[in-house]
Design the sequence.
């Protein structure tokens, strides 16, 4: 959402066209697709730490179950796994963003769905914390 959240990890197209002195400082990432190697993940974790972006689990205390997102975008409560699809961040604009997908928890016609951040009509994506430490939809 800001230029501070951007790190160039390598060049995926045209690396061979760069001057040799630039090639020494930039990794050739052609053919790697969306996968990150170990060093890329370390850089990403440091960037998140520097930006103060923290991820945590959202738990239903009554049921002792954790909010999780599956590959199809379905949201459900389940046992703790500690995987990225159970990790959430409250963004600067009060969205609840899933670490695995970058999509946000959205209230749509009384249903919870996951959606890309929409800065134009994002009211359905806004959440606040009540006095008891619970996330409540801002329209509530």
Sequence:
């Amino acid at each position: 959402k800001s230029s501070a959240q951007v790190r160039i990890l390598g060049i995926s197209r045209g690396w061979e066209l760069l001057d040799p002195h630039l090639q020494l400082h930039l990794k050739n990432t052609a053919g790697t697709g969306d996968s990150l190697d170990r060093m890329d993940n370390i850089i990403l974790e440091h960037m998140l730490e520097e930006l103060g972006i923290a991820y945590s689990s959202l738990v239903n205390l009554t049921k002792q179950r954790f909010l999780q997102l599956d590959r199809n975008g379905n949201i459900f409560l389940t046992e703790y796994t500690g995987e990225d699809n159970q990790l959430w961040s409250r963004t600067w604009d009060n969205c609840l963003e899933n670490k695995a997908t970058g999509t946000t928890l959205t209230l749509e016609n009384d249903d919870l769905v996951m959606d890309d951040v929409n800065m134009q009509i994002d009211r359905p994506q806004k959440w606040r914390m009540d006095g008891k430490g619970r996330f409540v939809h801002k329209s509530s």
